[in-house]
Write a structure and sequence with these properties.
Blueprint: E1 2-4, E2 9-15, H1 20-27, E3 36-41, H2 42-56, E4 61-66, H3 75-87, E5 95-100, H4 102-114, E6 120-125, H5 130-133, E7 138-143, E8 146-153, E9 158-162, H6 171-188, H7 190-199, H8 208-228, H9 243-253, H10 260-279, H11 285-294, H12 307-316, E10 326-332, E11 335-340, H13 343-357
Parallel strand pairs: 2-9, 3-4, 3-5, 5-6, 6-9
Antiparallel strand pairs: 1-2, 7-8, 10-11
Bound molecules: nicotinamide-adenine-dinucleotide and zinc ion.
The site of nicotinamide-adenine-dinucleotide has 30 residues, from helix 2, helix 4, helix 5 and helix 6.
Length: about 350
């Protein structure tokens, strides 16, 4: 798949064995790389770093292993990466290679965006979720007061997505990533949505051809949105479907308690209900909810989180402008719109959402 943005066009190689492309991508670079810094996390290193080395056979490489998950996206780890980069004499022509999930990708991308005012980087994603995060050029670390609050737009040179690495993903992570696949289908293509719903009845039972198909579709959909709107002045906001409430749940539950995708799934269910109520969306919400449940998703907001707190969080969302909470809603499946929703309407619907679940 080719991704076109106003700042750059780059390839995404997807498939089993895609990693074989990496060497020639690196050697084929117009402006040769001096050194390569591989940033990966403890879990990915344990499972795959050894084979990664063998598969790629790269020279002039040094590896930086950071803590797994959100713990990678801190100021401390960021600074530590910069220190290693300086100590290992990375220069402007060096390459940063991110090998891991969305967290490592966001961190490594931010290091690349800021080291010496920006050097090149390549994404080698290892989670389902990263079909989303590795494409599009948004890179960031977290601030104690908010997720992804410190970041940049920095497009990779290439994305090499070898599905072989996904084999070791625990079911919880499959579930987290698959929520973004569902999101891509809902905001863009009804047929894709029904194809998923009919085809995917269990996450651990997904076949390789199914994964290849939906990850490719997901990347294409995201790529299409990015091509129109790299810096999120318009349609890119549609990718936040399910995320306004989802982010609030993630933050309130404590990051890591509920995964990103699990929170987004609840957020999508809520947004679909809002869409039915406010825009008259024609959608079988019951079937959707049953499907989510059968895949192991929670469909209600975790106990102990108050609606008022969620509302406060939603107001702090980066997408909020002048305090108005903007939701991505659907007029039809595949037809998203951005709509400001009144606080009172939101509170009422959050209440209803909780009651319906009981
Ligand atoms: P992650 O990188 O934290 O990976 C999830 C967990 O799976 C981690 O513990 C990791 O060590 C482990 N893991 C990764 N690959 C594995 C493998 N092959 N086998 C076994 N375990 C493996 O998170 P994620 O779910 O990939 O991504 C979430 C992050 O992505 C969040 O920080 C989110 O903010 C970010 N994100 C960014 C964008 C973007 O556009 N930049 C979009 C969506 C999400
Ligand atoms: Zn997301």
């Amino acid at each position: 798949v080719k991704i076109h943005t106003s700042s750059k066009t780059y390839p995404v190689y997807i498939g089993k064995g895609a990693i074989q492309q990496l060497r020639s991508i690196i050697h084929g670079a117009e402006d040769q790389y001096t050194t390569i810094m591989v940033i990966t996390d403890e879990t990915v290193a344990k499972h795959h770093l050894h084979t990664f080395r063998e598969q790629t056979g790269l020279e002039r490489v040094f590896e930086k292993v950071v803590p797994s998950g959100e713990k990678a996206k801190t100021f401390d780890v960021y600074q530590d990466c910069l220190t290693s980069a300086l100590e290992n004499k990375l220069d402007r022509k060096s390459l940063i290679l991110s090998f891991g999930g969305g967290a490592v990708g966001d961190l490594a991308g931010f290091v690349a965006a800021t080291y010496m005012r920006g050097i090149r980087f390549i994404q080698v994603p290892t989670t389902i979720l990263a079909h989303d995060s590795a494409v599009g050029g948004k890179v960031a670390i977290n601030h104690p007061l908010g997720k992804n609050m410190v970041g940049a737009f920095h497009q990779p040179e290439a994305v090499v997505y070898d599905l072989g690495y996904l084999k070791t993903l625990p079911e919880k992570e499959l579930r987290s990533g698959f929520a973004e696949v569902i999101k891509h289908s809902l905001i863009s293509d009804e047929n894709f949505y029904f194809w998923l719903m009919e085809g995917i009845q269990s996450l651990s039972g997904m076949t390789d051809p199914q994964m290849l198909e939906f990850l490719t579709r997901g990347v294409q959909i995201k790529g299409g949105v990015i091509a129109e709107d790299e810096k999120e002045n318009g349609v890119r906001a549609f990718l936040n479907f399910g995320h306004t409430l989802g982010h609030a749940i993630e933050a309130e539950a404590g990051f890591g308690e509920v995964t990103h995708g699990e929170a987004v799934a609840i957020g999508m269910l809520f947004s679909l209900k809002l869409s039915i109520q406010l825009l008259g969306l024609d959608f079988n919400i019951k079937a959707f909810k049953l499907w989510l449940k059968s895949l192991g998703y929670e469909t209600s907001i975790p106990a102990g989180i108050s609606n008022e707190r969620l509302l406060e969080r939603m107001k702090q969302d980066k997408k909020t402008v002048n305090g108005a909470i903007r939701f991505v809603l659907l007029e039809k499946i595949g037809l998203p719109v951005l709509k400001e929703v009144e606080e009172t309407v939101l509170l009422m619907n959050l209440k209803k959402f909780a009651e319906e679940e009981e």
